[in-house]
Amino acid sequence: MGRHEEKASFDAAGAAAVGERPRDSVCIAILGSGGAGALTTGGLLLEAAARRGLYGMMTRSVGPQIRGGEAAAFVRLATRPVACMADRFDAVIAIDWRRADRFADELALDAESLLIGDPGKPGDAAAAPVPESLARSGARVVDIAFADLAAAVPGGRENMVALGLAAGLVGIAAEELDGLIAKRLGAKGTAAVEASRAGCAQGLAAAAVLPVRFPLPRPEAEPGPRWRITGNQAAGLGAVQGGVRFAAAYPITPATEVLEWLAPALRRLGGTLVQAEDELASINMIIGASFGGVPALTATSGPGLALMVESLGLAVASEVPIVVVDVMRGGPSTGIPTKSEQSDLNIAVMGCHGDAPHVVVAPLSVGDCRLTTQWAVHLAETLQTVAVVLSDQFLGQSQAVIAPPEPEDFGTRRKVLPRTVEGYRRYELVGDSISPMALPGITGGQYTADGLTHGENALPSSRASDHRAQLDKRAAKLVQADYGAHWAEIEGEGDIAILCWGSLAGAAREAAERLAEAGAPVRLVALRLLAPLRTEALVEALGHRRVLVVEQSHSGQFLNYLRGSGALTGETRSLRRPGPLPIRPGEIAAAVQEWRRS
Amino acid sequence: MNEHPAPKRKASDYKSEVKPVWCPGCGDYHVLLSLTRMLAASGTPPEQVAVISGIGCSSRIPAYTNCYGFHGVHGRSLALAAGLKVARPDLTVLVMSGDGDGFSIGGNHFLHACRRNIDITYVVMDNQVYGMTKGQPSPTTDPEWDSALAPGGTGIRPFQPLVIALASGANFVARAFSGQPNETARIIHEAVMHPGFSFVQVMSPCVTFRPEQAAWKDAVHPAPVEATDDPARAARRIMTDDGFNIGVLYRGDRPVFDPHSGAEPVPLSALERSFAL
Question: Which tens digits make up the pLDDT trace of A404-413?
């Protein structure tokens, strides 16, 4: 690391100094061991808050087990839209403490936090005290006998008691929960609804004895329409919005929900989804469908992307538009399938052999998965190339309550050969380097798409001149493309710029907002377009500021990529950490302030 | 396959002007001839036909036709063809492969293509050798065949593609010999007309690295019995024959893969509603 650059470390005091805004947001972790229903509880809490007019998001943290492992719902509720977790948790609600230790790294707690849980009775199988790893934070421990409270009502379940308690903690009333329970559990019958209501009532009553509560006010203005959506669902929606009508899929965590959302959606839209035998097949299936003229997409995660890379090069060389959504997880190898990391940047941008320019974009929030995926389809289709969407587990599997994300009318249209022709040359060197594509069925348009180097007439050629001309063509069409304003989000003024990409935009924006409120504003630059890198525009956006590069990777993939491109011309620092621990807004703000002091 | 009654076409209408890279005497020339004859007999316009391939000597064939073609990466032609046929059911889709491309690097896709039973035709030109990389053993090579990469032979039992196809659910299984272009054209035509996934193994000699395969022309003979619709019986016959039975060996009637709902498409707003609170 250079003289002017060092890895910033988490400075809790610094984070506190710039002030987390109290009580317009509450962050709660709900934990449980196998089958306790922590994720269900978290989802219902989020929905109950949404019905009250609040915003929020829920991320999930689970172990590798299919069933019966530990699970945690991290829920942040707020009076305004939020795009990241808070710096710390106000409360941990443990249906039981048995496996809570495994979440210790992910639970930022302090003396103001509450550790609410059921220690159980000596001799119970589920009995476990608060683990030392959490207790040492100094957080106040409150014992609530969830099991006993649940047992006191017919058919009562501990997770419903926990829901009632969490609702009480943030000021959600019994009648607000009742409506939700009737809606969500009505299909299970009257008895189930009544048992859940009674369980919630037990929890609400128990909340009254807590030493402190964090009631959130209702928003002053009536909130407009809102959605509850995950990033994986939003990516699917963006795909079909962009015109995708064929998908091929191989299941992989944490991308599977994109495919599971698309399967019925495509059927309803007159499209199709095929489950492939592996990722080698799924990528080639979408190339085949797109060659036939149907916009096509697949979704995967790091290991699947690694298998697809050879065929990404095929699509680049044969100029067949395709979109690959990579919902990143911890790597390398199998890594941490259930948790987030921004470490597929290198393979997404540079994985192909040969010179294979293509598009790489990254959504900046859960809701932005819609626009960014739609944009990726637009760029792939209009530029006749590959577009990779770098989402991640945090965006993909988080549920967010947000204003409905707006699509955009890109006017997406592939440049297709319009009619019968003579003397057609598929890879003709035309002005914008995007030659009209013949689709099967067009008389006179017949050609053989090829991964072999070819001439303008699509026939294989090993001539240096053909190789050079087609390499130039494929590079030029990406350089000449109009990326509009979507390439980055640029906000604020200040002596320091925070530069990030993808899902970290949420935490970075919140850090920038806090710094501005503290009278220490910064510029925020969040990249949505990673390749081709808009180097000149980026240099201009950064100006002469010092640049704090923030990313969730161990080696600094983003930093090194920017350096290689020449986009970083001045003093630079790196704030980075591998997944799965998120980089929180307070850490980013603290790193900025620490740099200013030094 | 869709029938196209209109104008009478010749085999030459389906041939491009590109000169093949194949060695003089290569069996694949005759497969190309069979293919174009078969297409002429079908009458399908060339622009309604897609010829899909992977990598290897045989996989060069799409550019030698006047159809739409895709010369993809090694081993993945079946997957590419599956995506194309599902997206464009109106097209006639043929996949042309070799024993290395189809049975080694593409082996897994072979199993699942048989199983999935999409209405495409898979023609594998089998010469029991990797020719393009100049003479290495393939999955169908005899265990004793001596080569630089496997001195003294591989010692590995050859792959049985026809039996594997039957076990995996292919709906039509046949063996042909490139030296009989009319018969091969007839078999491929029947394969194309048969619904679902049809597999034709074409024995196509490599004159350069397997000159002894010149003897195939005297060894081949028509299969002594009519094709069966019983995969177990067909498999038993294939496992016990001399490897030179030519003809259609199995015709099945499994349902063809069709993921289309056929329902009237809904507007996007119908999908958005599920997210609204």
Answer: 998 899 999 9
